Amino acid sequence: MATLVTGIGELTTNVEIDGDKCGTLHGAAVRIEDGKIAWVGEARYAEPAETVVDVEGAAVIPGFVDSHTHLVFGGDRSEEFAARMTGTPYAAGGIRTTVAATRAASDAALRTRLHGFVAECLSQGTTTLEIKTGYGLDVASETKLARLAREITNEVTFLGAHVVPAEYADNREGYVELVCGEMLQAVRPYAKWIDVFCERGAFDVDESRAVLEAGVAAGLQPRVHGNQLGEGGGVALAVEMNAASVDHCTYLTDNDVELLASSDTVATLLPGVEFSTKHPYPSARRLIDAGVTVALASDCNPGTSFTTSMPLMIAFAVREMGMSPAEAVWAATAGGAAALRRTDVGTLAVGSAAHLAVLRAPSRIHLAYRPGVPMIERVFS
Ligand code: NIG
Ligand code: FE
């Protein structure tokens, strides 16, 4: 059974054409067979198909690849957000509030909430999701979160090294040993990635390296939370470990930017965090101009960025981070795929997954131009 999506006013393929990284086509059509793209071209050359969907001049983009989320958690931190808006600074210690609520929540309650978030993501055009653990921080709870996340996606990340939980406050070393040993072994069957929050108040560079090395030895691939709350060694560690991505990158030295530019590590920017913590937005322009591959992701979590909206990330990136709308859409699709080292999503090429978002607009610019307005008409996934 073939489906032809036709009447596409502006198609973003992300297959570079004449210096246009978005590979933009006008008056295009896409043929879908068995969940994959079978043909892309000018609509007038399209072969007939059993099902024809005419999008009547709308823009179509690849489904968003949200490469950084924390969607399995319990509890509510809206009061913490409200206090921040009137001057209380963000502190990573708030993570422990969510850990307590998550440990207390039943499987069923966590699953129901998770499924609600996933539906929210899909309705906003996200067709590939990464999901982290990190609000369990004991063996049983981290395993539970990984198992629930794996029901949704293969892109599961073990973040046992999110913060040191309260019961290990006087025994950091013991906690790092637990993460690298028993906890890693229990979570490993569900996870693809190993992550660490390398930041003052969380884990230092040596602790972070130990966690990543243990994960790699167990067959996981590294990614890093770094340089969120201040300058530090997270970016350098990510590059040293050939991590797929280093996420946040809010505070970068020139040396960090140079290291990223000469590496295969993607800089994933999470502007929902700057919105919610009132830290300054990082300059995507500085990174792109230096030759760094930039991704955008939601970081959806109850502490620093409680939104699943990739269109909102695009709007922030365009308004506050020096990205053009085209660059921001690329970063939220192909950039996210690069951050997950995936070549089958984020791009509309023959053989790619048929993940398409049809916009309620004639061009992708509207994703930033009409912030806060639902712009996704339909998703193919
Ligand atoms: O990615 N940076 C570390 N972890 C989350 C925040 C977690 C929280 O405050 O609950 C983040 O922003
Ligand atoms: Fe995060």
TrEMBL record:
Pathway: Amino-acid degradation; L-histidine degradation into L-glutamate; N-formimidoyl-L-glutamate from L-histidine: step 3/3. 4-imidazolone-5-propanoate binds at R77, Y135, H162, Q228, T304. This is Imidazolonepropionase. One of its GO terms (biological process) is L-histidine catabolic process to glutamate and formamide. The keyword Transport does not apply. GO terms for cellular component: cytoplasm. Belongs to the metallo-dependent hydrolases superfamily. HutI family. Catalyzes the hydrolytic cleavage of the carbon-nitrogen bond in imidazolone-5-propanoate to yield N-formimidoyl-L-glutamate. It is the third step in the universal histidine degradation pathway. Residues 60-359 form the Amidohydrolase-related domain. It comes from Microbacterium mitrae. It is found in: Cytoplasm. Fe(3+) binds at H68, H70, H225, D299. Its EC number is 3.5.2.7. Its cofactor is Zn(2+); Fe(3+). One of its GO terms (molecular function) is zinc ion binding. Zn(2+) binds at H68, H70, H225, D299. PANTHER family: IMIDAZOLONEPROPIONASE, IMIDAZOLONEPROPIONASE-RELATED. Its main location: cytoplasm. N-formimidoyl-L-glutamate binds at Y135, N301, G303. InterPro entries: Amidohydro-rel, HutI, Metal-dep_hydrolase_composite, Metal_Hydrolase. It comes from the Bacteria. It catalyses: 4-imidazolone-5-propanoate + H2O = N-formimidoyl-L-glutamate. Keywords: Cytoplasm, Histidine metabolism, Hydrolase, Iron, Metal-binding, Zinc. Binds 1 zinc or iron ion per subunit.
